[in-house]
């Protein structure tokens, strides 16, 4: 009967100190890897870029059959001769952004118009008060005339949907009715 108490004592003995130490080290390593991974994921996330929204406001337009069209200051757009048909449109655009905005594309009723700093041909645009010189950039907090030369003449009452796209990809949609001046 003396064997039974010894078996009970053996059963009550704990894990050896070496195995216990190894288990604690393994738990610490796994915990460290989990914490390291967690903080790696947080630090690897890209901080959002400072995005400044662009804001172009249509103040008015001139799409009448007149010679010349009027610019945003009430003066004539040199060379915008609509005396026999409506081939040019002058839009008064205000840049409400804190930075200059570059116009990369203009669409009129879905047709892509290209920028031309010189004399405008059909399907071209620029900012300025002359059809023979201009830019594709409008300065911050300023107003300028976006001059378009239509791909073909239109009659009064024709609806024109103009989409202005900036270099950053933002688009602004404006509805114009040929034959009108809104300001």
Tell me about this structure:
Strands 1, 2, 3, 4, 5, 6, 7, 8, 9, 10 and 11 form an eleven-stranded mixed beta sheet that branches. The protein has helices spanning about 5-10, 15-45, and strands spanning about 55-60, 85-95, 100-110, 110-115, 125-130, 135, 135-140, 145-155, 160-165, 170-175, 180. The protein is built from two helices and eleven strands. It folds into two domains: about 5-45; about 55-180, Immunoglobulin-like, CATH 2.60.40. Strand 9 and strand 10 (about 170-175) form a beta hairpin. With about 180 residues, the protein is an alpha+beta fold. The radius of gyration is 35 Å and the shape is rod-shaped. The model has no long low-confidence stretch (mean pLDDT about 85).
Question: Which terms would index this structure?
Answer:
183 residues, alpha+beta, Immunoglobulin-like, 2 domains, 11-stranded mixed beta sheet, 2 helices, rod-shaped
Q: Helices and strands in order, then pairings?
A:
Blueprint: H1 3-12, H2 17-44, E1 56-62, E2 86-95, E3 101-108, E4 111-115, E5 124-130, E6 133-135, E7 137-138, E8 143-154, E9 159-166, E10 171-177, E11 181-182
């Amino acid at each position: 009967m003396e064997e039974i108490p010894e078996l009970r004592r053996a059963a009550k003995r704990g894990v050896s100190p070496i195995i216990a130490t190894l288990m604690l080290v393994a738990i610490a390593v796994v915990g460290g890897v989990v914490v390291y991974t967690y903080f790696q994921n947080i630090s690897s996330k890209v901080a959002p870029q400072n995005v400044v929204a662009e804001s172009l406001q249509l103040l008015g337009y001139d799409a009448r059959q007149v010679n010349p069209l009027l610019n945003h200051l009430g003066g004539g757009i040199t060379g915008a001769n609509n005396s026999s048909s409506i081939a040019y449109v002058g839009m008064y655009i205000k840049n409400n952004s804190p930075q200059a905005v570059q116009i990369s594309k203009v669409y009129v009723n879905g047709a892509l118009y290209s920028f031309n700093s010189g004399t405008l041909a059909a399907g071209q645009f620029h900012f300025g008060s002359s059809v023979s010189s201009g830019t594709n950039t409008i300065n911050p907090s300023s107003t300028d005339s976006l001059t378009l030369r239509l791909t073909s003449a239109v009659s009064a009452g024709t609806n024109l949907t103009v989409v202005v796209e900036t270099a950053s990809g933002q688009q602004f949609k404006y509805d114009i009715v040929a034959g009108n001046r809104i300001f």
